[in-house]
Every structure is written in C-alpha cells, then in structure tokens.
Amino acid sequence: MIGRWTSVDKLADHQNQIDKSPYAYGWNNPTNLTDPDGNCPICLVALYFAVEEGVAYFAAAAVVSTVVVHHATSTRYASQSASSDPTPAPSPSSDEQKTAPSKPKGQKNPTSDNARTTGQEAHRQKQKEAKEQGHDVEVPIELPDGTKVRKDVVEKDGTPVIIKPDTKSGRKSAEKREELLKKNGYNGTDKPLPKTDLYNPNDPVYQPGSPTYIGPKS
Question: Of 1, 40, 42, 131, which is the most exposed, with the fewest CB atoms less than 10 Å away?
Fold first, then answer.
C-alpha cells in the first residue's frame, strides 16, 4: 500500500527529509511509519499493543500528541477464539509488550547528518566559485509580499541562484522557491528569472579528502 498526497509537505525541506519524496505518505512505508499530520513520519515515538476480546489494537503516539489507531484482527488471537476452546486469549504481560526503539533524529541520525554535511560543503564550494566570478553570496532579500529570504548566490545582473541537491525533494524545494520569486517580480521582465544549481549529493568532491574540500570554519 502506498499513499500519495497532492501537495508538498510543509516540512519537505527538513534535514531528515532531504532525500525523501514530499509526495509519499510515511516515506512509502505506511506499515511501519505513521504520518498523521502529513509533515514528518519520524515524529513517531511509541508503539505498543493491547488485546481485548480476541482483537489486537495497535496504536502509535506522535510527538504532537496526535494518536492514530490501527484496528486489525490478530491472526494469533482470532485463530484461538475460533477454536473449540472458548477461553479468551490471555492479554500479554508487560514483559511481552514491545516498545519500538525511537528513531535517531538530527545529528544522531547518520543519514540526515551525512546529507546535511554534504549539503553544507556543496554550498561552500559553489559559493566560493561564485565569489571568484564576482557574484554575491548569502544575500538577504525582502520580497514585495513581505517575505524575507536569503539567496545562496545573486549574480552580477541580479539573477538569484538557488543551490539544492539533485534529489526529488531538492528539486521540489527549488521549484517552490523559484515560484515564490517569480510571483514577486523575478519574472524575466521586471527582474531576472531565478536559476537553480543542482548538485550531486554523492559526488566525492564534497567529501573529506577531496582536493576541493573546504570544510566548516573552525
């Protein structure tokens, strides 16, 4: 079963979702992940089950205190209730109840941490190249609608450049930012159209040991 949404997650740019599609429910893993508010399935913090009258109830509690209950007939207990023995199946003891291990988040999550580190290095290298060509970097801009943004690069002619990873979520995020700029005058008539510079997050040039590696400021 794969759920699909028709709008991008509000947290599509979150560091833990940088390599995930913002249109896929529960990261295409609805059996093990629940996403009640459509933002971030790794908010799942607890998984437990209880048995009542031969039926297993599974519940997942989210950090935002939203509870989603999945009701399913348990094969184990249903088969016992259908047997000749009318004795109800015993409820599991506290020792039998299992709690799903919490998923590492932020810097403790190797996948998201590596993606974030690579992204930061890609920005450093691309912005260095832009500065060497005479462009401005990290330029704060206040749009006519009041939105304040910071552009990775602004070329000498005023063209804003968006630096994003060449992934599904990276491309979607870039499209959203391009549309925001276009709606605020960067339409090719009043101001230059925005551009997107996509980098390959698997390129070894962004990894320590590369001759071009810059690394964070000490």
Answer: 1
CA-CA distance, 174 to 10, in Å (whole number)?
14
Q: Which two tokens stand for residue 98?
A: 């299992």
End-to-end Cα distance, the chain: 47
Tell me the chain's radius of gyration from C-alpha atoms: 24
CB 127, CB 121: distance < 8 Å = no
> Beta strands 55-62 and 44-52: pairing type?
antiparallel
Q: What are phi and psi of 85, to 5 degrees?
A: -85, 110
pLDDT of residue 164: 96
d(CA 108, CA 86): 49
Distance between CA atoms of residues 79 and 122, nearest Å: 57
**Predicted TM-score of the model (pTM):** 0.51
CA-to-CA separations, 112 to 55, 57, 86, 151, in angstroms, rounded: 38, 32, 51, 23
- CB neighbour list of residue 82: distance below 8 Å, 6 or more residues apart: none
Which tens digits make up the pLDDT trace of 84-102? 455 555 665 555 555 555 6
**Best CA proximity match to 201, nearest among 105, 123, 130, 132:** 123
Pairing of strands 160-165, 148-154: antiparallel
- Please report which residue ranges of 66-161 form alpha helices under DSSP H: 75-81, 110-132
C-alpha distances in Å from residue 11, one per residue of 19, 140, 154 = 12, 22, 25
CB 2 within 8 A of CB 32: no
